[in-house]
Design a protein that fits this description.
Blueprint: H1 12-17, H2 22-31, H3 44-69, H4 77-87, E1 92-99, E2 105-109, E3 120-127, E4 132-139, E5 142-150, E6 153-156, E7 159-160, H5 164-169, H6 171-177, H7 208-218, E8 221-229, E9 232-244, E10 253-263, E11 269-273, E12 281-289, E13 304-306, E14 314-315, H8 318-324, E15 328-331, E16 335-336, E17 339-347, E18 350-355, E19 358-363, E20 366-373, E21 386-391, E22 411-415, E23 420-424, E24 427-433, H9 439-448, E25 450-453
Antiparallel strand pairs: 1-3, 1-12, 2-22, 3-4, 4-5, 5-6, 6-7, 8-9, 9-10, 10-11, 11-12, 13-18, 14-17, 15-25, 16-17, 17-20, 18-19, 20-21, 21-24, 22-23, 23-24
Helix pairs in contact: 2-3
Length: about 450
C-alpha cells in the first residue's frame, strides 16, 4: 500500500502542538513534501543500490526536520532561519554523501602490502512533486552505479528496472529477460498499464509526520550532547526511526537508532552512524536546487556481466593448462607450506553479458588449480583447502569482481566472504580458501603466486 505524505497543517494534534510557533509549522509543511513511500521494486543489484541510496537521503531529510523541531531551537527565529537556509526551499533535494570502505572489503597493493585508499561518493537528486529521483555513485571518480526513477518507470546502466508495472507494459521483453510477477513465471501477451509507484526517499518513512510527531512527544528524537568533529563544533542528535516489518512473523513496527553530528553553526548534518558504531556515511553537502530536466536523464547504457555457475572441469596436465592460457600460468608450485597440488582442471563456463532485456553469451577458458593439505606422513586431505581459478579475462562465475570495484594490475581485493581476487600481468585470479583468511594471510598467498611459463 502506498502511503503518501500529508501536510502537517491537516494534523490537528501537530497544529495544536506547534500553535505557539507558527513559523515551525510552516517549515514542517515545506519539509514534509520531501517524503513519500513506495520504493519501486527493482531487481537484483539495482534494487539494492537504489534502497541504500534512498535510505541515506531519508535520514538526511529526517535530520533537518528534527533540527527545526526539537529543543533547544524552538522559538529562536534566527536559528530556525539558519536551519531552513541550510536546506533551501527549491523543488529538488540534492544530497552528496561519502561512505567508508565496505565492511570486509580491502584493496591492497601486492608489492607494498599497504591498503589502497578509495573514495566512494553517492549523489542524489529528488523531486517529490514530479516523482523523480536520480542516484549516481562514483568510485575514485568513475561511475559504478546510476539509477533514474520516474512515474513511467526506472532505469539503471543495464536497462529498465523490472517492476510489475514495467513487466505488465512490456510482456514480450519481460519474457525474453526471464522476469515475471506471476508465481507461474508467465506473462500475459497483451500489454497492460499499471501505475508505477512513485520514487521515495525511503519506504521506511511512510507516515513521516507521525514519525517525528511521536518522536517529539516521547523524547525519541533528542539532543544527546555536544562535541567536536574534525575541528568543528557539533551537536549530537539521537534519532529512533521506525521501519516496516521485514517479513511474515516480524513485528509490524521495528525501529533503528542513528546518531547524527550536526554543525553547531550551519545546522547541516555532517556525519551519521549507529550509536557507538562505525561511521555509516559523511554528509558532504545537502541543499535544494531548482528543477532542471537535465538532472533526470536516463543513465547511459553499460553492458554488464551476469553471474552463473561453473560446470565441473576436465582434468588436464599442467602443460596443457598453461597452453590453454597462452603458455603462462600462475600457481603456488607443486607444494606450498602444507598444501600440495592435487588436481588441475579446465573449465568452459558460459559468461552472460546483459544490457536491459538483451543477452549475449560467450564461452571462456578458465583453469582451476586445487590444493589440499598434506600431513607429515604424506597423507592428503580429500577436501580442497585452496582452489585457484584464473583466466585471461574477468569471469564473475568464479567469484571475480568484474566492475570498477575490482583490482587493477598488481593489486589484491579482499572481499569476505567472497574469494580473494588478484590481478597479475594481465591474468585474473580468484583464490578460494576453505578457511577464513586474515588480510595478512591473503596477502601472503597472493604474493606466493608465481608465473609458470611454457615455451
Amino acid at each position: 500500500m502506498n502511503t503518501r505524505a500529508r501536510s502537517p497543517l491537516r494534523d490537528p494534534e501537530l497544529v495544536e502542538m506547534l500553535a505557539s510557533t507558527p513559523e515551525l509549522l510552516a517549515i514542517a509543511d515545506a519539509l514534509v513534501r520531501t517524503e513519500q513511500s513506495g520504493m519501486p521494486a527493482a531487481s537484483g543489484r539495482a534494487r539494492a543500490h537504489a534502497l541504500v541510496a534512498s535510505t541515506i537521503a531519508a535520514a538526511l531529510v529526517a535530520v533537518v526536520a528534527v533540527l527545526l523541531l526539537i529543543a533547544p531551537w524552538q522559538g529562536s527565529g534566527s536559528l530556525v532561519d539558519k536551519a531552513l537556509a541550510a536546506v533551501g526551499n527549491q523543488d529538488v533535494l540534492h544530497v552528496v554523501i561519502e561512505r567508508p570502505e565496505r565492511p570486509g572489503e580491502s584493496l591492497i597493493g601486492l608489492a607494498t602490502g599497504a591498503a589502497v585508499p578509495r573514495s566512494e561518493r553517492t549523489e542524489i537528486w529528488f523531486d517529490d512533486a514530479r516523482d523523480l529521483k536520480k542516484t549516481v555513485t562514483n568510485l575514485d571518480g568513475e561511475i559504478v552505479d546510476e539509477t533514474l526513477e520516474t512515474p513511467e518507470g526506472g532505469w539503471t546502466q543495464g536497462g529498465p528496472i523490472y517492476t510489475c508495472a514495467w513487466i505488465a507494459a512490456h510482456p514480450v521483453e519481460a519474457t525474453r529477460a526471464g522476469v515475471s510477477c506471476n508465481p507461474s513465471g508467465e506473462n500475459l501477451a497483451k500489454p497492460r498499464t499499471i501505475p508505477e509507484r512513485p520514487p521515495t526517499i525511503d519506504q521506511a518513512l511512510a507516515g513521516f509526520v507521525d514519525r517525528y510527531r511521536s518522536a517529539l512527544a516521547s523524547g525519541q528524537a533528542e539532543q544527546i550532547g555536544n562535541g567536536e568533529l574534525e575541528g568543528r563544533d557539533v551537536i549530537w542528535l539521537r534519532m529512533v526511526i521506525p521501519v516496516a516489518g521485514a517479513g511474515p512473523g516480524m513485528p509490524s513496527r521495528l525501529t533503528m537508532t542513528e546518531d547524527v553530528a550536526v554543525d553547531a553553526e550551519t545546522f547541516k548534518p555532517l556525519l551519521v552512524q549507529p550509536p557507538g558504531g562505525p561511521i555509516s556515511f559523511r554528509v558532504l553537502s545537502i541543499n535544494t536546487v531548482p528543477y532542471d530536466p537535465s538532472l533526470f536523464t536516463k543513465p547511459q547504457p553499460v553492458e554488464g556481466q551476469a553471474g552463473g555457475n561453473v560446470s565441473p572441469g576436465t582434468a588436464v596436465t599442467l602443460e596443457h593448462a598453461s597452453s590453454i592460457l597462452g603458455g603462462r600460468l600462475y600457481w603456488l608450485g607443486r607444494e606450498w607450506r602444507d598444501l600440495r597440488l592435487v588436481e588441475v582442471t579446465h573449465h568452459r563456463p558460459t559468461v552472460t553479458f546483459s544490457l536491459g532485456s538483451q543477452r549475449r553469451r560467450e564461452r571462456v577458458d578458465v583453469i582451476g588449480l586445487i590444493y589440499a593439505r598434506a600431513s607429515a606422513a604424506g597423507a592428503i586431505d580429500e577436501r580442497p583447502a585452496v582452489t585457484i581459478y584464473q583466466a585471461a579475462r574477468c569471469v564473475t562465475n568464479v567469484g571475480m569482481t568484474c566492475s570498477p570495484r575490482g583490482p587493477s594490475d598488481g593489486q589484491l581485493l579482499l572481499q569476505s566472504p567472497m574469494p580473494s581476487f588478484v590481478r597479475l600481468d594481465g591474468r585474473y585470479i580468484a583464490v578460494w580458501d576453505s578457511l577464513p583468511q586474515s588480510q595478512a594471510e591473503a596477502l601472503e598467498l597472493g604474493r606466493a603466486l608465481k608465473l609458470r611459463e611454457v615455451g
